[in-house]
Amino acid sequence: MICLGIESTAHTFGCGIIDDKGRIYSNVIDAYKTETGGIHPSEAKKHHENVKDKVVEDALKNANLRFEDIGLVSFSQGPGIGPCLLVGMRKTKEVASKLNIPLVGVNHCISHLEIGKLMTKAKDPVLLYASGANTQIIAYEGGKYRVFGETLDQGVGNFIDSFARYIGFGFPGGPKIEKLALNGKNYIELPYVVKGMDVSFSGILTNLKQKFDSKKHSNENLAYSLQETAFAMLVEVSERAMAHCGKNELVIGGGVGCNKRLREMCRLMCEERKGKFFSPPNEVLVDNGLQIAWLGVLQRNQATTDYNTMDIKPYERTDDVDIIWKD
Ligand code: ATP
Ligand code: FE2
Fold it and tell me: Ligand 1 within 6 A of 30 CB?
């Protein structure tokens, strides 16, 4: 059985195709980018409207498949930006009804975890989910993927993007800050904000902006210190979650997981506690349709042809979902 999945929670419109054995056929994304400034929901929605048909066609073409080969369709139900989610849901309903096949809605955050497991063969990991909008430490316990720690304000990616925007870069800022940080030499002290198992970035952002305005520091040193501070916070709570749950695997997910320094810090922490660190390929760290297609496969028993009963869930939380498909 082959599943076609569509992702559209935020800036990316993606379509991925995978079968129930985990064989990957294709994964096409088209991401809305800006030269300066952040994401505007109505602009992102317009972007998705413009690219949706081509992305799905390209995914089928790359997979060497015809529409009729698809047996199941899945879409990202939430959490995400309402207008963007609607574009994805409508496109999947169009595909599913044309073929008269079942449709299933899935949770975006959980899809990061499940695709990470599939690609790395991790069995029962803690997930450090570090994306633009989300920052959560997630692990399976008692029938749900539980959130053991999370950001109290913005996601780590949005935090990095905001600082990048402040110093003149467009979206996404993460890769630009990573490049700058490579040439940073001196650590400038920044607030380190871990509260219990949670993290917070808005105070660090204000502090960084003040330091930038003071013109006393190079952008390279600011970028370097930003990464060292924010990533140490993430690694600290990830380690504590591993210890608390008695799990020895850590998987990274979300676009910030593309950052080499963050991965290195995660790997070192895991090595020190004789655990294993897994980083899936970048292609599945950033938002993509393949993660949605794979979670669709796992949740195929919940699929329906009664399309009208399906809606988006912009505010759905990771631990709202009962995990009925595990093992
Ligand atoms: P979600 O909907 O899961 O919250 P998202 O829509 O924010 O995700 P992702 O594609 O998972 O999107 O991640 C995008 C984020 O990843 C952006 O904030 C971007 O700056 C950041 N990012 C990408 N590459 C890097 C990098 N090399 N270093 C740091 N951050 C990065
Ligand atoms: Fe994501």
Answer: no
Query: Is the Cβ atom of 280 under 6 angstroms away from ligand 1?
Result: no
H or E element that contains 104:
strand 103-107
pLDDT by residue (tens digit) across 209-258? 999 999 999 999 999 999 999 999 999 999 999 999 999 999 999 999 99
Q: Which two tokens stand for residue 83?
A: 């207008």
pLDDT at 38 over 80: no
Smallest CA-to-CA distance from 70 within 20, 11, 129 is with: 20
- The reply to whether domains 2-108+287-320 and 112-283 share a CATH topology is yes
CATH code of domain 2-108+287-320 = 3.30.420.40
- Ligand 1 within 6 A of CB of 9: yes
pTM: 0.94
Q: Quote the CATH superfamily of domain 112-283.
A: ATPase, nucleotide binding domain (3.30.420.40)
For a pocket test of ligand 1, which of 75, 107, 258 has the largest count of ligand atoms closer than 8 A to its C-beta? 258
User: For the chain, what are the domain ranges?
Assistant: 2-108+287-320, 112-283
Measured on CA atoms in the order 45, 51, 285, 111, is the torsion positive or negative?
positive
